């Protein structure tokens, strides 16, 4: 094989010409000049002197822990709501969610889900937001002793599936709720279609609803500038352990753990 005057082998395709988009850069300085301004580049906050990844993780953990008192509020709210609706003789037109009177009080049921459901605390408030949306579409929706075992369970389960990075299978949730997996599968689909698959919500909507539950002002979500000084007030663990739910313990199994990060 001979080499021509241009330094290329005879018969080989010619290389890119000077000025071609694929031509080698003349020098590194020229390449730097052609880059867009730094303020137009996609830059992460950590690269621009903002919150670090560790600070972000710490802020998210503290924000999640700050939602734990919400479960106590919801347990009390459900007890009062179910008692009032039972006293008024109310029922829903959603026949699939109606059944025999639950063998547990609503507040104890909330604590049972908190113990065995493996979901974040905010899922309980978001479950109520879903029920509120459902009521706008189905005006007869209300929680009674004959339907909260199904309605509230499905609402919280869907919140966990939509928001949490990992969650348990329908089989696990059915055991937590004291119903069959086949029934829970059907209830989940009916709930979604009746809700119009409207599961997304903003942080502002969540905070407004939690303030409404608390009946007053709620501390704002922690900002990264104040991560180091943020102080949390936690509910005593005994408040979530009191009053046995009367449904027996949820027996852990390998299947539950293996399915925790998978969708049904």
Which secondary structure elements does this structure contain, and how are they paired or packed?
Layout: H1 28-33, H2 53-65, H3 69-87, H4 106-116, H5 122-137, H6 148-163, H7 170-177, H8 181-195, H9 203-214, H10 238-241, H11 254-258
Helix pairs in contact: 3-4, 5-6, 6-8, 7-8
State the main characteristics:
11 helices, mainly alpha, Cyclin A, domain 1
Helix content: 40-55%
Q: Residue ranges: pLDDT <50 for 5 or more in a row?
A: 21-25, 216-244, 252-264
Radius of gyration: 28 Å
* CATH homologous superfamily heading of the domain at 67-219: Cyclin-like
Mean pLDDT: 73
Would you identify the CATH architecture of the domain at 67-219?
Orthogonal Bundle
Name the overall outline: globular
CATH class of the domain at 67-219: Mainly Alpha
Order of secondary-structure elements: HHHHHHHHHHH
In total, the number of strands is 0
Q: Would you tell me the structural class of the helices and strands?
A: mainly alpha
Could you tell me the strand content as a percent range? under 5%
Detailed description of the structure:
- This protein has a domain at 67-219: Cyclin A, domain 1 (Orthogonal Bundle), CATH 1.10.472.
- The chain contains 11 helices and no strands.
- With 264 residues, it is mainly α.
- The longest helix has 19 residues, at 69-87.
Provide a quick synopsis of the model:
By secondary structure, the protein is mainly alpha-helical. The protein has 11 helices and no strands.
């Amino acid at each position: 094989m001979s080499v021509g005057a241009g330094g290329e082998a005879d018969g080989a395709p010619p290389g890119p010409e000077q000025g071609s988009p694929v031509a080698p850069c003349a020098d590194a300085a020229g390449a730097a000049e052609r880059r867009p301004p730094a303020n137009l580049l996609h830059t992460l906050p950590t690269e621009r002197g903002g919150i670090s990844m560790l600070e972000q993780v710490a802020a998210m953990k503290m924000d999640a822990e700050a939602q734990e008192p919400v479960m106590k509020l919801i347990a009390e709210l459900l007890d009062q709501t179910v008692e009032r609706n039972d006293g008024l003789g109310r029922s829903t037109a959603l026949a699939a969610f109606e059944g025999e009177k639950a063998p547990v009080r609503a507040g104890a049921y909330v604590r049972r889900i908190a113990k065995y459901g493996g979901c974040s605390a905010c899922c309980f408030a978001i479950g109520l937001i879903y029920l509120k949306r459902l009521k706008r579409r189905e005006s007869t929706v209300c929680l009674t002793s004959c339907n909260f075992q199904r309605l509230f369970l499905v609402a919280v389960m869907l919140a966990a599936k939509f928001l949490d990075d990992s969650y348990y299978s329908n089989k696990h949730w059915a055991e937590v709720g004291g119903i069959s997996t086949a029934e829970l599968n059907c209830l989940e689909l009916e709930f979604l279609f009746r809700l119009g698959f409207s599961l997304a919500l903003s942080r502002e909507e969540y905070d407004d609803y939690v303030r409404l539950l608390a009946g007053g002002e709620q501390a704002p979500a922690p900002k990264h500038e104040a991560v180091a000084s943020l102080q949390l007030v936690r509910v005593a663990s005994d408040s979530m352990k009191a009053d046995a739910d009367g449904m027996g313990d949820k027996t852990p199994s390998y299947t539950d753990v293996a399915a925790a990060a998978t969708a049904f």
